[in-house]
Write a structure and sequence with these properties.
About 85% of the residues lie in helices and about 0% in strands. It has about 80 residues and is an all-alpha fold. It has one domain (about 1-80).
């Protein structure tokens, strides 16, 4: 249950960050309202790219971190039993 809550909180953090990015807000407005606005500025796309990279890599980073922590806990429990 804790793992599920942790994964949901990471996903929620990503959605919160997405709500702050101007390029994503424009895309969502275009989908819901049908209004499209074309921006030629690349300043608004940098947070967009960061959000996409965060969304794609966060589950992998989270799984790797949790696996490492669990391995360290198991190793510590194993070494404590032999002492």
């Amino acid at each position: 249950m804790m793992l599920f809550m942790l994964v949901c909180s990471v996903i929620s953090a990503g959605f919160f960050y997405a709500s702050r990015v101007e390029a994503i807000q424009q895309e969502l407005n275009g989908i819901t309202n049908g209004a499209t606005s074309i921006t030629t500025s690349t300043d608004g796309r940098i947070p967009h790219v960061i959000f996409i990279m965060f969304t794609l890599t966060s589950p992998l980073i989270l799984a790797g971190t949790l696996a490492s922590v669990m391995s360290m806990i198991r190793w510590k429990q194993r070494t404590n039993r032999h002492d």
